[in-house]
Amino acid sequence: MLKTTSEYIVDYLIKEGIEYIAGIPGHGCLSFFDAIRIQAEKGGIKYIQVKQEMSAVHLADGYYRASGKPLAVFASIGPGALNTLIGIGTAFVDSTPVLVFIGDAHTHMRGSGILQEIERHHDSDILSCFRPVTKRCWRIESAAQAPKIIKRAFKYMNEGRKGPVVIALPMDIQAQYIQQKQEYELAEEPPPPAVYASEGQILEAANILKAAKRPVVIAGGGALYAGISEELVAFAENCGAAVVTTLAGKSVFPEDHPLYGWHGGSKGTDAGNYICRTADAVLALGCRFSDETTSSYRKNITYNFPDAKLIHVDIDPAELGKNYPCTVKIAADVKTVIKQLLEYFPKENAPKLDETNPYYKDIERVRNEWLAKLKSLRESADGLLTISKFLHKFNELYPVGGLVVTSSGNTQAQVLQEYCFKTPNTHITTGGFSTMGFSLPAAIGVKLARPKLPVAALIGDGDFLMCMQELSTVRQLGVNIITVVLNNKGWMAIRDLQRDVFGNDYGNYFTTSDGVPYTPDFCAVAEAFGIRAVKISREEELAGAITEAINSNEPVFIEVAVTDEYPQSGGIATGWWDVPIPAYMKDKEKEYQKGVSEEYII
User: Fold this and answer.
1) Contact yes or no for 154/99 (Cβ under 8 A)
2) Helical pair 5-15 and 30-42, crossing angle rounded to 10 deg
3) Nearest Cα to 332, choosing from 354, 316, 321?
4) CA 592 to chain centre
5) How many CB atoms lie under 10 A from the CB of residue 319?
6) Residue 517 bridge partners (DSSP)
7) Which band of pLDDT confidence, cut at 50, 70 and 90, is reported for residue 300?
């Protein structure tokens, strides 16, 4: 039976186990959308009707992070396609596989400037926008190419360092029959052998760690994606190493474990920065050593390289030695490597984690000091409802195995510093691209992937304003997620940064034209979408509202009116971040240059 290119692709998605496809139809993908209709009516695939194409990619991103399975996304030609870019950029930087189809100009009219074609520099040039943020992108130039390209796309996005791929479908090709024999040769071939480290590399790494007095494991997003939580606990205990996680790696290690050192970097913790900078050997698993993780590479703030020895393990060899010199470079799968290392650290030789172990006592001391500092932060905000107070109460009441989704802003930063995830792999966030507008659509994807678990999106009001239309999707799908908007009436993360660095602030409060503070009635908005909503303005209201939301069988929206008073509006400033100072701020700029002079990056 002959099938069109679009029919073949949609059938292929189903055979690969793709359960959902999300997007918005337009004239540029109408034939493709009709193929979706045919299979959706048969129950072969489910269509998710998002309200902005960026949200479709965030939804697919969240789904993968919660399930380990990719989703498909589609968009029309032109602006619909370009709307996916922020979502694709987020997935690319965080190494999430997402398969995106976009409409494109007819092959016989390419370069004519048809509706929504970009062609002034090159005919049908839209893929030039996608190349920097994808592992690979293709344009199907003939129906006969479709089987090979779709198979390659699955292979590319799932191999090695995973990431998003894009396939452009010219409108005429979407509608044409594939004339040759159509065989569904799936990309799900037997997986390639695990990428091992050599025995020499493992022996050298093991000897360094055995000789270390203060070993530290840095677990990044690659460690979280690899699912190494069980092995990481065993290795930390058997080696006697502290474990510090990056933002992308948060929740890979149980955060109530006595060897957990919280986080380092500019948004990290006093405990994490101290543990990292006093380390004599660091085992880095699946992390990039970005500026926020390293306090912009300023020596002796977070790290003490090259004085400390670095064993860096990553599936992507380009990351090894990119920012810091390595004593041992291992381009391999982190799960495989941690298992190899465990052979050199048997349980019977594990150091005692008690008062006789000075390193363990030091880890315990700085952990307790950090928790006491957080308590002091909450108590110092007398009479004010703060993000810290909300997170403390939410952490206390929310089920231990529930998933929490965050995105860029003070809420994300304070979840990093303050929220204790006791169950591995329960925190999902946008990492290196630091995207706003991620939490809500990603939480929808997370809930679709893990329907039996509680899912909560914790969002700032500035973040929510970028994706609030997806409450419509929440209501239509009936997914009972908890959406919490921590409303401080502005972009307070940037306002607080201005205060911290420049000593002033401008343009980040939401106000009317005459300077009066302004905020939408978010609860009324949620109710207009058909979602039950509650507004909280006092600390004593938190417990009841949170408990009721957890026990609800339908979507719940909570607006928490948190203070915008500085510094209670944010968390605890720790580490250092390279934010350049204008030359006319002479004293501050002089201090800034001193910090820059202490940066160590190769």
Assistant:
1) yes
2) 40
3) 316
4) 30
5) 21
6) 511
7) very high
CA 107 to chain centre: 37
Question: Alpha carbon 528 to chain centroid distance?
Answer: 30
Q: Token pair of 218, please?
A: 């840095």
pTM of the model: 0.96
φ, ψ of residue 87 to 5 degrees: the values are: -65, -40
Cα(404)–Cα(486) distance, integer angstroms: 14
Helices 270-277, 358-380: axis angle to 10 degrees equals 150
Please name every residue paired with 20 in a beta bridge, in sequence order, or none if there are none.
46
Average pLDDT over residues 484-502: 96
443: its two tokens: 């939480």
Task: Identify the CA nearest to 488 among candidates 505, 471, 513.
Answer: 505
Which has more confidence, 89 or 602?
Answer: 89
Say if strands 309-314 and 281-285 run parallel, antiparallel, or are unpaired: parallel
**CA nearest to 59, candidates 474, 549, 480:** 474
Hey, CA dihedral for 194, 164, 60, 3, is it positive or negative? negative
Rounded CA-CA distance 536/546 in Å is: 10
pLDDT tens-digit map of 508-551:
999 999 999 999 999 999 999 999 999 999 999 999 999 999 99
CA distance 585 to 577: 17
Q: Can you read off the two tokens belonging to residue 454?
A: 């509680």
Radius of gyration of the chain measured on its C-alpha atoms: 25
Give the pLDDT score at 559.
98
Task: Report whether 153 contacts 167 (CB < 8 A).
Answer: yes
Nearest to 483 by CA among 380, 562, 559: 559
Which tokens in the block code for residue 142?
């003939």
Q: Which of 119, 104, 82 is nearest to 174 (CA)?
A: 104
pLDDT of 224 above 80: yes
Residue 189, pLDDT > 80, answer: no
Residue 421 corresponds to which tokens in the numbers above?
């995830």
Contact 102, 127 (CB under 8 A): no
**Omega before 346 cis (within 30°)?**
no
Contacts of 93 (CB under 8 A, 6+ apart): 431, 432, 433
Question: Which three-class secondary structure string do you get for 531-573?
Answer: CEEEEECCHHHHHHHHHHHHCCCCCEEEEEECCCCCCCCCCCC
The two structure tokens encoding residue 135:
């592992």
Strands ordered across the beta sheet of 20-23? 46-48, 20-23, 72-75, 99-104, 165-170, 136-139
φ, ψ for residue 568, nearest 5 deg: -65, -10
Q: Greatest CA span in the chain, whole angstroms? A: 78
| First CA to last CA distance, the chain | 59
> Which stretch of DSSP H or E encloses residue 283?
strand 281-285
H or E element that contains 492? helix 492-501
What would the pLDDT profile of 230-247 be if each residue is shown by its tens digit? 999 999 999 999 999 999
pLDDT digits (tens, 9 = 90+) for 378-418: 999 888 999 999 999 999 999 999 999 999 999 999 999 99
Length of the chain equals 602
Q: In which region does residue 496 sit, left (phi positive, over 0), alpha (psi from -120 to 50) or beta (all else)?
A: alpha
Element holding 308 (H helix, E strand): none
